[in-house]
Amino acid sequence: TRTGAVLTHARAVSYAQLEPGARAHPVEGQLTGIQQTFVVDSGTGTITSGGQTTSLEKGMAFVITPGVDFE
After folding, report:
1. What is the pLDDT of residues 51-64, one digit of tens each?
2. How would you classify residue 25: left for phi > 0, otherwise alpha for psi between -120 and 50, otherwise beta?
3. In angstroms, what is the C-alpha Rg of the chain?
4. 2, 19, 34, 67 - which has most CB atoms within 10 Å?
5. What's the DSSP call for residue 26?
């Protein structure tokens, strides 16, 4: 039984820090059509996609597949 997946290839690695109250959103450019993985390194926040909002906190991660809108 396979309980998880292992990242075997990455095209880019980026680091970003959001100030309290700031909002992130999809950006056109080099990462268009690329699956993106986000890791919450500190603090808390929310992500909204497909009409659902989920709380985020340190230690959590999420994946945005190509074409998915989020904020």
Report:
1. 999 999 999 988 88
2. beta
3. 13
4. 34
5. -
